[in-house]
Specification:
Length: 290
């Protein structure tokens, strides 16, 4: 199965070919998917339904199916289903604002947050991570880039958007302090709670720039090229993972095993290709507790 899949992927270029070779080399060391054995492999998960938190506004990772608004699709939504099918437990999705998902994990209202969540040591103080991907960030601006923004150093004096609880809003506050220390105008750092409202602020010139996932920026600019564009990218090689409450070691191990299995059999790469993502972003799973 892996050989046939890799042969199809070779046409996508050297990155995919190298990825396939790496997955094939590691496949012998990976536990296969055996959902019927969940009771013996992960007894604490048997008979449970896992609740996955997503925001449903993060194209192409998590968004509502145009044919069924109650159904989430996207790379993270589909891959989460595949991983838990590999483990052998059913899932349900809880949709909420992105900034509220991490507190929902720590309070036990949901089991995992699987929604393009960047790893930071600060977040790892309150949740554990199971890594599966890398990412980068980009700056979203109005088409034509009227402020001529080309780097983070040029954001002084701008009205800049960052998501609630994200690394981007913290970065904007740090950059603003550096601006004022250098005698330049401060950044008006504006916190948003959902991405569509942030995009509308850029479209209507109520804000100058939004910082966020480069993949999401690419997706939204493809939909609205006459209104929005990417100005520049930054923060390469960000690590992305599933957030799990501290102490849920069996769930973490099950995720690590199943992510490895679905990477080795090509399922994750297939999902990424389907949603226009580069499988070169795929990262071997790893549990991080700090």
């Amino acid at each position: 199965m892996m050989d046939r899949f890799c042969n199809r992927l070779v046409t996508f270029g050297l990155t995919l070919a190298l990825l396939c070779l790496a997955l094939q080399a590691n496949a012998a060391d990976v536990k296969s998917c055996e959902p019927a054995k969940v009771a013996t492999r992960y007894p604490g998960l048997a008979g449970k339904t896992i609740t996955i938190g997503q925001d449903g506004n993060s194209l192409p990772f998590s968004y509502r199916d145009p044919k069924d608004p109650d159904h989430l699709i996207g790379a993270d939504a589909d891959y989460a289903r595949a991983v838990f099918a590999c483990i052998g437990v059913p899932v349900k999705f809880a949709i909420a604002q992105w900034g509220g998902l991490l507190p929902a994990v720590t309070s036990g209202r949901i089991d995992v947050m699987w929604d393009t969540l960047y790893y930071t040591p600060e977040r790892a103080k309150v949740v554990d991570y199971v890594l599966y991907s890398t990412a980068a960030d980009a700056a979203l601006v109005h088409t034509g880039n009227p402020k001529h923004l080309a780097s983070l150093d040029g954001l002084c004096g701008t009205r800049a958007l960052g998501g609630l609880g994200t690394i981007e809003i913290a970065l904007l506050h740090d950059l603003s302090a550096k601006c004022t220390a250098a005698g330049k105008p401060a950044i008006d750092a504006i916190t948003y709670t959902d991405r569509p409202s942030a995009w509308q602020m850029i479209e209507t010139n109520r804000a100058d720039v939004m910082l966020g996932s480069a993949v999401i920026v690419k997706a939204i600019t493809a939909e609205k090229p006459d209104l929005l564009q990417s100005a520049f990218t930054f923060l390469p090689d960000i690590k992305v993972g599933v957030a799990v409450a501290k102490g849920r070691t069996e769930l973490e191990q099950a995720l690590e095993d199943a992510i490895a299995a679905t990477q080795a059999d090509g399922e994750m790469a297939r999902i990424y290709v389907h949603y226009g993502l580069d499988p070169g972003l795929i990262l071997a799973p790893k549990i991080l507790t700090k």
